[in-house]
Amino acid sequence: MHDLIAPSALMTEGQAAPVDGGAAGAPARRTTRSARLTLDIGPLLDNQWTGIPVFTRRLAEALLRDGRIDLSFSFNLTRIRNSTVEAAMKAGTGTFLRQDYEDYAYGDCRPVDPGEPILYPSAKKAYCMGAREASVVHDISTLVMPENHEAANVSHHLDDIVHELGSNETTFCVSEATKFALETYFPSLAGRTTLLYQYADWPPEFRTMDRNLPRLKIGRYAVVVGTIEPRKNLAILLRALSQPALDRSDLKFVIIGKVGWLVESFLNELTPAQKARLIFSGFVSEFMKYRLIAHADFMVFPSFYEGFGIPALEALSLGKPVLASKTSSFPEVIGSAGLYFDPVSAEALADCLARMTHEATLAQLASEAEAQSRQFNWRRMADPVAKWAAQH
Predict the structure, then answer these.
(1) Cβ atoms within 10 Å, residue 172
(2) Cβ of 118: how many Cβ atoms within 10 Å?
């Protein structure tokens, strides 16, 4: 367990501590009728949006839709025009956003006002740069199970975590499970964390686009979403396929995700029979992910640990039940719209997979899926951030 350093102790030599009117030499904080907030949109500069970039996009759209705060965007403490960011969100990619940012940063550059609250949707690039700062912790698996991550990834998340969290006025956590784990490892954060649930959404045109295309010619299948790496625990799926409960099943598994760490040994262990039941799609577009989930019987989420597990919520939003590990955030996200298994027991997974192939079980769970997903919506995501920004 770790104790955190107070924000004032983290100031670097020569760095003035921010006061109510802003840092030394900075413009005074603007007074408006609505609260102001600067959202760092660094994750949106990625070309392909999954995980944190999608979370950032959903948070930005929720706050814009909510309307209680005057929202600005920045990267590296340099403002980015709202119109530029909104155009990128509409396109669903940051392909052109980085170039627009660089043109703006080296041209009509305008730094953020340090007197305004700054929210980082993930790990901070800098800290103690504003009077009020917050960041979002998605999971602490690099701390809980570092053996399931590359050393560089562990270093990226943990090297500065004490300083990052210590400089936060509040730390947003994406689930109760993440909040509990964070406060367990950092007891001094108790009372300084805030729950921030996200939501699932799909472009409204996806349904029509899908309906106008031929059906997928895969047969019956379950879908698995996530980077192929040890933490995702796909090896247990292979072991489950050899269990008697699944011997006669014709169910296939479509695995959506980029190839991650230590995958070669995983793939080399596949037998021809196993390969026939596993389809690796690699990275797919949001629309193709929508199609693959919408036409699946259900989703399988065997991960050892997830901070939230947004693919599970995306499946629920399309009426698909989820078979998940009974660990971390899954029970609070999936609720009664799924089945759970011990993530180290191939027999337990095989038994649950056999149950999920029964039409009556699928129908019962599917009837609860959409109602469960509606508990997570844009209003619920925007509310704690808007309330924090409006404080003081």
Answers:
(1) 24
(2) 26
Helix (H) or strand (E) holding 172, with range, is strand 170-173
Query: Cβ–Cβ contacts within 10 Å for residue 133, how many?
Result: 25
- Separation of alpha carbons 64 and 59, rounded Å: 9
Q: Are 66 and 378 in contact (CB under 8 A)?
A: yes
Q: What pLDDT, on the 0 to 100 scale, is given for residue 214?
A: 94
Contact 118, 288 (CB under 8 A): no
Numbered ranges of CATH 3.40.50.2000 in the chain: 205-373
For residue 300, the Cα-to-chain-centroid distance in whole angstroms is 17
Which of the 8 DSSP states describes residue 291? H
Contact 146, 161 (CB under 8 A): no
Q: Determine phi and psi for 286, rounding to 5 degrees.
A: -60, -40
Tell me, what's the pLDDT at 7? 39
CATH superfamily of 205-373: Glycogen Phosphorylase B; (3.40.50.2000)
DSSP, collapsed to helix, strand or coil, labels residue 73 as strand
Contact present, 246 and 252 (Cβ < 8 Å): no
Chain segment 54-106, per-residue pLDDT in tens: 999 999 999 999 999 999 999 988 888 899 999 999 988 898 888 878 776 55
Q: Are strands 221-225 and 252-256 parallel, antiparallel or unpaired?
A: parallel
Find out whether 355 and 323 touch, Cβ atoms under 8 Å.
no
Q: Both tokens of residue 77?
A: 């403490």
pLDDT at position 27, please? 35
List C-alpha distances in Å: 106 to 76, 80, 102, 227: 13, 12, 6, 36
The residue behind tokens 């045109």 is 205
The CATH fold of domain 7-199+377-390 = Rossmann fold (3.40.50)
What pLDDT shows up at residue 197? Answer: 97
Residues in the chain with pLDDT < 70?
Answer: 1-33, 104-109, 144-159, 227-230, 259-267
SS3 (DSSP) at 144: helix
What is the rounded CA–CA span in Å between residue 330 and residue 346?
A: 18
Give how far Cα 132 sits from Cα of 129, 237, 303, 359, Å.
9, 45, 35, 53
